[in-house]
Structures are given as structure tokens and as C-alpha cells.
Amino acid sequence: MSKPLVLQQVVKQFGEKTAVDQISFQVEEGEIYGLLGANGAGKTTTMRMVLGLIYPDGGEITYNGKPYGKELQRELGYLPEERGLYPKVKVSDQIIYLAKLRGMPAAEADKNLRYWLDRFEVPEYYDKKIEELSKGNQQKMGFIAAVVHKPKIVIMDEAFSGLDPVNVELLKATVKELRDQGTSILFSTHRMEHVEELCRNITILDRSKTVLQGNIREIKKRYPREEVLLHTTGEVTGLESISGVDSVERKERGYLVRISEVAAAKLILRKAMEDSEVEHFEIKEPTLNQIFIKEVGESNE
């Protein structure tokens, strides 16, 4: 069975510059796929090619086994980083018009819009102009515009930027809901914690090339565990002198110990139990943020 979205050896050049260099990945039905990279890595160019706004110079992009065609307009939804709704036009006029451009009848678009406004607990925004809404609520309207026509593939670029924590959680729950309904989502962001929560598979780009790709859990297993988190009721002395300990950082409830070998963890626990009562002990797996910095470098973040 064909995958909803497949990129194979995709290349895009602008003059002498190669913006995307032989990128390949596939997004399954009901999957949120993470596309990561520093600024200028090729993420936006890749998303524009997926949307059919620009065409690859090499390789191919297929949608359920077929190349891009105008009939795909209804199948695709896009939430850009730069919000693009007209400030002086009413929410309802604008979003229903955009849905009609995607091939959806006005009555169905109206029904879907009202569903989403109720879902976000803002039914009164139906007749408001975009400029009358807060930045966070404008962003919610942009999200509705991206999904109102029930696309099968949604591209999200920094979907949660500028939102307060309550609205981030609301939008995350909604993205998961779309995934569970079978929508394929290409999700690009700088916020690694969102990727860890939402995505199963990722591609990390650096200077137009793929530098890391695969299942997040499998990727993490390739990297050493270099931190021990220790919560104790009292002080623990001498952790710095343990073989394999690189540094010790005092925390509110204990210590963060950086280690160069996992064997040091057992010695840290033994020392902590001798000196105090241990409330929490954890050999931390590397975060995606730490892995990203190792692969791409802090200068690019």
C-alpha cells in the first residue's frame, strides 16, 4: 500500500546554492513526523516542495503513490510560521473562502468552522475580524484555516510559537486528535520537547543534508547516558572524586552529575546512600536537544 507522503532523493537548487540535497523520508498514515534543523538547513524549502509551491530539481515526491497535481489541493493543509490571515476580514468570511478554494462546499466549510470554534471554546469569534483577536487566538484561527477542509496531509511550521502554555497544551491535544483520525502530519519546530512528545520518527537537516534520521527511541540508544539526577534529603560529599565523574552541579533538591562512563552511576548511588537518604536516582537518557546540538552544533541553534 502506498504511503501518504514519500520524498525520495529530493534536490532543490537556487542558482549555485543547493538548498536541499538528496533528502528522503516518508510519513505514514496517522503519524506526526518531525522535520528538524537550524535556520537555513532546508526545512522551509522542503515544506514548500511538499506543498507544490516550488518543484524539486531532482528526485521525486509522491502522495499515496502519485505525483503532485492540482487535485491534491483538497488533500493538503498548511500552517505557516508567518501567519497569513487578513487582519481586516471576518474569521468566517476568510476561513470559509479558503476552504472553498480547496474544493469544499460553503455549507460544509461553515459547519466545520463552527465545530473548530466550539472545540477551541471561542464560538463568538465567528463574526470577529482577525485584528480584533490576541496573537494567540489569531494563531488558533490559522490552525483552523489549515484543517477546516479536512486534509489528509498537514504541514505545520512552528505551530506553537508565541502561544502561552495553556494554548500550547490545547493545540497539542488537537494535533494528536488529528493524528488519531489518520491525518499524516509533517511537523517542523525548534522546540525539541514538543518533538519528543509528539513524534515517533524524525529527520534532522544541516546545511541542506540529512545528518540524522529514524525512530527517536532508536536514535537515543546510540548516544551515551552522560547525566545522573540525584535527589537526597541531605548533603552528599565527595561525588567529584568518583572515577568517571566529570562534574557535579548542586540543584534545589540534590545534584546533577555529569559522567563519562555509565559504571560511575552505581558508585554515585552507593556514596549517596552512605551520606544521606536517596529520594530519586535516575541515569538520564540524552534529550533530543542534546543530540541535536551534538549533530548540528551550538553555533547553528
Automatic annotation (TrEMBL):
<keyword id="KW-0813">Transport</keyword>
<dbReference type="InterPro" id="IPR003439">
    <property type="entry name" value="ABC_transporter-like_ATP-bd"/>
</dbReference>
<comment type="similarity">
    <text>Belongs to the ABC transporter superfamily.</text>
</comment>
<dbReference type="InterPro" id="IPR003593">
    <property type="entry name" value="AAA+_ATPase"/>
</dbReference>
<dbReference type="GO" id="GO:0016887">
    <property type="term" value="F:ATP hydrolysis activity"/>
</dbReference>
<feature type="domain" description="ABC transporter">
    <location>
        <begin position="5"/>
        <end position="232"/>
    </location>
</feature>
<keyword id="KW-0547">Nucleotide-binding</keyword>
<dbReference type="InterPro" id="IPR050763">
    <property type="entry name" value="ABC_transporter_ATP-binding"/>
</dbReference>
<dbReference type="Pfam" id="PF00005">
    <property type="entry name" value="ABC_tran"/>
</dbReference>
<dbReference type="InterPro" id="IPR027417">
    <property type="entry name" value="P-loop_NTPase"/>
</dbReference>
<dbReference type="InterPro" id="IPR017871">
    <property type="entry name" value="ABC_transporter-like_CS"/>
</dbReference>
<dbReference type="GO" id="GO:0005524">
    <property type="term" value="F:ATP binding"/>
</dbReference>
<dbReference type="InterPro" id="IPR025302">
    <property type="entry name" value="DrrA1/2-like_C"/>
</dbReference>
<protein>
    <submittedName>
        <fullName>ABC-2 type transport system ATP-binding protein</fullName>
    </submittedName>
</protein>
<dbReference type="Pfam" id="PF13732">
    <property type="entry name" value="DrrA1-3_C"/>
</dbReference>
<keyword id="KW-0067">ATP-binding</keyword>
